[in-house]
Amino acid sequence: MDTGFEHRTRGRYKAAVSLGQVVSQLMAEQISPRQARLCEVADLWGRLLPSSLHEHCRIVDISRGLLKVEVDSPSYLYELQLCSEELLEELQRQCPGARVKRIKFVVA
User: Fold this and answer.
1) Is the confidence at residue 2, as pLDDT, over 80?
2) Which positions ≥6 away from 96 have C-beta within 8 Å?
3) Can you tell me the distance from the alpha carbon of 30 to that of 25, in angstroms, rounded to the nearest whole number?
4) So where are the chain's domains?
């Protein structure tokens, strides 16, 4: 008996793949490149900021050209905003592959 389900799905999947293959492909094509960009930016971020300021913030995300940074107090957020233009310029110059267009600071 044909339930219709087999008919609708027939032809969509040419070959069965293992979950391991799917995860490997996802890691290679999506996660690893994103992680590499994040690590590159995080390393540079640590070198650009003085340790007294670096201790009070952390990068939480990079997506669609936005670098999101959490800061532990409004006073440090203000300090970071004062130098954000220079930070952005250096990130763009030294990490062009990250494609950072804007930095957003938020108090955590």
Assistant:
1) no
2) none
3) 8
4) 34-107
- CB distance 67 to 28 below 8 Å: no
Provide the CATH topology of domain 34-107.
Answer: GMP Synthetase; Chain A, domain 3 (3.30.300)
Q: What is the mean pLDDT of the chain?
A: 81
> Counting runs of H as helices and runs of E as strands, what totals does the chain give?
6, 3
In this prediction, residue 7 carries a pLDDT of 46
Edge-to-edge order in the sheet of strand 102-107: 57-63, 66-71, 102-107
Question: Residue 81 and residue 71: Cα distance in Å, rounded?
Answer: 11
pTM over 0.70: no
* C-alpha gyration radius of the chain: 21
What whole-number distance in Å separates Cα of residue 44 and Cα of residue 101? 16
* pLDDT for position 37: 62
